[in-house]
Amino acid sequence: MLALFGATTLMLVAGRWVLPAASGKANLKSENVEIHIIDDNFFLKWNSSSESIRNVTFSADYQILGTDNWKKLPGCQHITSTKCNFSSVELKDVFEKIELRIRAEEGNNTSTWYEVEPFVPFLEAQIGPPDVHLEAEDKAIILSISPPGTEDSIMWALDRSSFRYSVVIWKNSSSLEERTETVYSEDKIYKLSPEITYCLKVKAELRLQSRVGCYSPVYCINTTERHKVPSPENVQINVDNQAYVLKWDYPYESTTFQAQWLRAFLKKIPGKHSNKWKQIPNCENVTTTRCVFPRDIFSRGIYYVRVRASNGNGTSFWSEEKEFNTEVKTIIFPPVISMKSITDDSFLVSVGASEGSENTSVNQLYPLVYEVIFWENTSNAERKVVEKRTDFTFPNLKPLTVYCVKARALIESDRRNRGSSFSGTVCETTKPGNTSKTWLIAGICTALFSIPVVIYVVRVFLRCIKYVFFPSSKPPSSVEEYFSDQPLRNLLLSTSEEQTEICFIIENASIITEIEETNEIDEAHEEYNSQASQDSGNYSNEGENSGSKISEEFLQQDSV
User: How far is Cα 132 from Cα 145, in angstroms, rounded to an integer?
Assistant: First the structure.
């Protein structure tokens, strides 16, 4: 950009103001315009690489981006140096973008405006060093840290209670033994030695925004001589069912102790909180190195506890403050579960508190939900239910099938998903269903109808066995009718009955020969008659009768 205002006009090209050679003066070169913000202190700086020109000044304006309303920047009007402080600018919101512009001036002539890239003050701001105040004890240093900026700071108005402080401390005689600790605005550094000079420096941090400030100047202080009454050490707090047990170490007898507590969030608020510590019940003027107090004294949250000793010679300093998180110390016992078959295809699972947790205040301090896992005993498929109730129904089950269940208690809306361990596994079998009854009835009916059939089959089988292994002495009727004569019937009788054989004595052999010939003729005649009957259909018994007659005559002659 180039603009001409007579022979002495200043030109700004690429961040530089240039006095034309026609004026007979040296060139003015200004570059690298920068903005620095530390807490609520605003600075505009630039570098000049050429010799200063007499009677040349600089002025700057500002505006909120998008308003098109330039205002003079306070502290940056007609200055001769290469920087200006505009901390007095009135900004209503440090999160709004603002624009700056600057120009060079000589008398009534000015250069064109050089506009600085728009910026958000809060994002450009750096955290400055905090103010630190120190107090000494024999084995500790008390820190009182003021947040960066002022009490009326608009830059950190929303973050004053969010600052955490990092302290680097070392013995003055040896800077190699540094140690770093994170502290609150009102805090102590412990585990020091009496009558030693310690030095430290502090810086502030906004951890959620990942912003770290610069260190403060170095502060040094001497610890006091050893105190006559030592402070209690190794303070611990444990849970014993429905009570808390606070314990500590102390080397001397004939001493009384006092314990106090403080809510942890108060340490985040700048300022002193010595008057906000409260006495722990049952822990005042105790003569032992422990005290027991009810759990319902503390609601859900994080606390600090401390102890001090007293005897005839005086009172000790307070012990090291012990952080105490009630959520971590809370013990949740596994629930007790039971199963009950309410229909042939469903179970009712009841979940209750265990005996160990009935007398505690866990349910009052922390609302509980129950996680119930249900599965068929022969399957890996599980049903999982997490609800704030104690009765769970599982329908659509198989009849006469074994199902198992287990459960645990969880703290409701707990980010760490803290809870008890799982209860023991309980298994039960479902009742017989309607299908089973139907099959049972069908089986009974089938059995009743099949009894006559079975009896009949058995009877037939027994008759066969009897016929094969135990035959009857009487022939069947179909056979008996052809053996009407007693002699022939006797042939079928048992051999146990003795029979008298009938014998015939034939003296004339010629007669026998004649009879045989006669029989042969009769047989031939009978065969012929049989064949003839196939053609004519007429049957004759003449051969049989004639044969019978001959036999009868023969028998009569023989009998004579």
Answer: 5
pTM (predicted TM-score)? 0.57
What are the C-alpha distances in Å from 13 to residues 55, 111, 465? 21, 10, 132
The residue written with tokens 């209503």 in the block is 92
Residue with tokens 């005042």: 284
Those residues with Cβ within 8 angstroms of residue 423's Cβ, 6 or more apart along the chain or in another chain: 334, 335, 336, 337, 354, 406, 407, 408
Q: Cα–Cα distance between 62 and 74 in angstroms, integer?
A: 9
Number of residues in the chain: 560
Write the single-letter amino acid at 272. Answer: K
* One-character DSSP codes across 470-516: S--SSPPHHHHTT--SHHHHGGGS-TTS--PPP------HHHHHHHH
Handedness of CA 224, 226, 227, 228 (dihedral sign): negative
The per-type count for the chain, helices as H runs and strands as E runs, is 8, 34
Radius of gyration of the chain (CA): 61
What is d(CA 495, CA 83) in angstroms, rounded to the nearest whole number?
154
Task: Tell me 30's DSSP state.
Answer: E
Question: What is the pLDDT tens value at each position of the chain, 560 positions in all?
Answer: 333 333 333 343 334 454 443 333 333 444 578 899 999 999 998 775 444 556 788 899 999 988 888 999 999 999 888 889 998 888 888 899 999 998 888 888 888 888 888 999 999 999 999 999 999 999 999 999 999 988 888 899 888 888 999 999 999 887 678 899 999 999 999 999 999 999 999 999 998 888 999 999 999 999 999 999 999 999 999 887 678 899 999 999 889 999 999 999 898 888 888 889 999 999 999 999 999 998 888 888 899 999 999 998 899 999 999 998 887 766 677 889 999 888 878 889 999 876 555 444 455 556 788 999 999 988 888 899 988 888 999 998 988 889 999 999 887 877 667 778 888 899 999 888 665 555 555 566 666 666 777 787 777 777 777 766 666 555 556 555 555 545 544 444 444 444 444 455 555 544 444 445 445 445 544 544 444 444 444 444 444 444 444 444 444 444 43
